[in-house]
Write a structure and sequence with these properties.
Elements (H helix, E strand, L loop, with lengths): L2 H11 L2 E9 L5 E10 L6 E11 L2 H8 L9 H25 L9 E12 L1 H4 L7 E5 L2 H8 L3 E3 L2 H6 L8 H9 L6 E6 L2 E7 L9 E7 L2 H10 L19 H8 L19 H11 L6 H22 L7 E6 L6 H10 L3 E5 L10 H15 L19 E3 L3
Helix pairs in contact: 3-5, 7-13, 8-11, 9-10, 9-11, 11-12
């Protein structure tokens, strides 16, 4: 047997594994790196977060990604070059952090790399009859494995699509395994570039799990801030939005899109919710000349309202739910104020209450997916749940 396959087999047989989860989202803020101790698999999974750090991307890195990010037409040469280059940048970050944490690379069993999403194209968005759902993440797993010396699991979303899903949201799998609690109906709300949530039933029956994208989280707000303010990547503490007033004509126009009437579960991305979307809404509502502050105030409640609408439509009004939030939008006080005001039957906390740093949550969940790829078989899920194929995901890259 190939020695690296023997090593992987030995890792799978261990009672526990040390896994580095990596996440870089559509907000392009930086690389989240979560070092996790994971024992068991499936419904017996236990996880402890050992170390976490979010390493901001510098301006050059962000600008390189933006040359291909969510664009229908890009340089094929640039895309080809960025695939290994991004992996090598991530590898440098990993090697530096492990040195900082005084952890030897050879003691880490697996890297779980989400990669960098470049384009998300569910059929509901591209609308081309002969093509199905598609998505593309770059940051090559082989380069990452070789540069770190650690077996790498990557490209998780392709198996999800191959078996009938849209490639998102994937958080639902890890949410169910580590956050479900008997007797408590929970909602795990992640507000990143796109807002999504997972419903975890208190009866622990996976037939009742529900997960979907809701709409734009931070994506248009962040893009607008970057357009208007050089060097600012987001509206920190909602400072700009709090200075403005909601423009209801613009808000109506922003909500006027077929995406919001499509059945759940569904996925979306910056391919739809972007600066062109805002421009078109302003033209439709004749609000091109409103202030930056009013625009931000309106974008803020637009994101909130789409989350609220999705939650109300997909939950029982006679039940009480506990929301555990994560993602960058969790730090936006105005956005969270809108949510709490409109959802009095929902109690709010962050995943800190579940012993997971909310900024680390997505990286942690990919560590769970890597653990399932090596050790699990997806049989903790009922077959045929809408949008949740009962499969293990990820491609394996060896360092030699």
């Amino acid at each position: 047997m190939n020695s690296t396959i023997e090593k992987l087999y030995a890792i799978a047989q261990k009672p526990g594994r040390l896994i580095l989860g990596l996440m870089s989202g559509t907000s392009l803020d930086g690389l989240d790196v979560a070092l996790c101790s994971v024992t068991g698999c499936g419904l017996q999974t236990k996880l402890e977060l050992i170390q976490f750090e979010s390493v901001p991307f510098d301006a050059d890195f962000k600008n390189e990604i933006k040359t291909v990010f969510s664009k229908q037409q890009v340089s094929l040469e640039k895309l080809t070059l960025l695939n290994p280059w991004i992996a090598l940048q991530h590898a440098n970050i990993i090697n530096s952090l492990l040195k900082k944490w005084n952890i030897k690379n050879e003691t880490v069993d697996l890297i779980a790399s989400h990669g960098q999403t470049i384009y998300h194209a569910p059929k509901s968005l591209h609308g081309q009859s002969k093509f199905g759902n598609a998505t593309l993440q770059i940051g090559d797993g082989d380069h990452l494995a070789v540069a770190t010396g650690i077996i790498t699991i990557s490209d998780f979303r392709q198996k999800h699509i191959a078996t009938g899903g849209e490639g998102a949201p994937l958080a639902v799998y890890g949410d169910f395994l580590i956050f479900g609690k008997a007797g408590e109906d929970r909602i795990l709300l992640n507000i990143g570039g796109i807002a999504n949530f997972t419903y975890l039933p208190g009866n622990m029956n996976s037939n009742f799990i529900f997960s979907t994208d809701a709409g734009p989280g931070n994506t248009i707000m962040d893009a607008y801030m970057q357009q208007q303010f050089e060097g600012k990547y987001f509206d920190k503490d909602a400072t700009v939005a709090l200075q403005g007033k909601i423009n209801f004509e613009l808000l109506v126009a922003l909500k006027d899109n077929d995406f919001f009437s499509k059945p759940f579960p569904k996925t979306t991305g910056p391919e739809l919710f972007n600066l062109d979307y805002l421009k078109n809404a302003k033209e439709k509502s004749s609000t091109q000349n409103i202030s930056i502050e009013d625009t931000m105030a309106t974008l803020n409640i637009f994101s909130a309202d789409t989350i609220i609408d999705a939650l109300v439509k997909s939950t029982d009004k006679n039940k009480k739910y506990k929301i555990f939030s994560s993602g960058g939008g969790m730090h936006n006080p105005l956005l969270m104020q809108h949510l709490q005001k409109a959802l009095p039957n929902f109690s709010f906390a962050t995943t800190t209450a579940l012993n997971i740093d909310p900024d680390a949550k997505e990286a942690v969940l990919f560590a769970i997916l890597a653990n399932e790829c090596v050790c699990g078989n997806g049989n903790y899920l009922q077959k045929g749940i809408n949008g949740m194929p009962a499969v293990s995901m990820g491609k394996i890259s060896f360092p030699d």
